[in-house]
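Appendix B, example 12.
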Amino acid sequence: MPEPLHITPVATRRDLREFIRLPWRIYRGNQCWVPPLLLDLKKLLNPRKHPFHHHAEVAYFLARRGSEIVGRIAAVINHQYVRFHDDPTGFFGFFESMDDPQVADELLATAERWASERGMRRIQGPMNFSTNEECGLLVDGFTTPPVVMMPYNPPYYSDLLTSAGYTKAKDLIAYLIDDTTPPARLVRGVASLQQRYNITIRPISVTHFQRDVAALLEVYNSAWERNWGFVPMTPEETADLAQQLRRVGNPGLCLLAESNNEPIGFALALPDYNQALRHINGRLLPFGFMKLLWYRRRIDTARVLALGLKPAFRRLGLDAMLYLHLWHIAPALGFPRVECSWILEDNRLMRRGLERSGARPYKTYRVYEKDLPS
């Protein structure tokens, strides 16, 4: 007879260490899983070190059978989301489970009760912690590793969620561009658009980095405010993102589109650091940092993680102009493959433009939801 299952909150440093290290057991031998950098993960989970916690409540839970950890989950109330959308929705994230419906059911039920006790009427996930970080459950495209800041999970996770009563809220699509020669008609069309609207595109300036990142995020908040799941970044989160971009970004992959010197659009791409991180097993010391520097030189993929235009400049084809600019620049910078992720399943305009340009959908991520009792 199996030992009884217990769900307990993370209350000690040892609990947190077990919460963090569980994926190393679940994904042992999986060639596609990329171990997260432990320093970054610990910072993200720490309420004293990551700005997300300044406007959120988070609780972490572990599932135990005897002395064995068999699952984990985080329950989240993002007050920034609740205020912005006037929507009492809670979230779950950092979900990991052995292939055992009882483990998943009890973890999810714990997160549901926690959110319901705090006035939430619905729960969505997985979100680690919001759409500004990793989100969604991989449901198609398991044969290749994820790119930077995209999740990975075993195929059985979707069955665990649906058996626990969760349904699809939204699918998020990842597109791949691996042809370095853009279609001639796209080049001609973009040249005409650029001339017609007097638009220039440039990379963000290293000299005026803070100024340009602030302009990029101003456009981001304007461009994405009506998007499903959007949560505006706080000034603290903006500063944290700017610090990350300075540390791991490539300025040539971060573009601003300007019309008469006014920022009207942006494209933000990052080198796929997962290609290097997979070799260091989450640790920079004692030799991980040297390995990271070595394998960083072999990164051949970039991820476009955000692209947007101010409302007055939408539906003009200018998104294709930004993609085309990246299409030219990325291979020259050493990135012949580009993933565009993620795109909302019902963003027909963006998806159609990508597909006409030669991009192909190759991974699907799903956000699930469930109503909570009143």
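The mean pLDDT is 91. The two ends are 37 Å apart (CA to CA).
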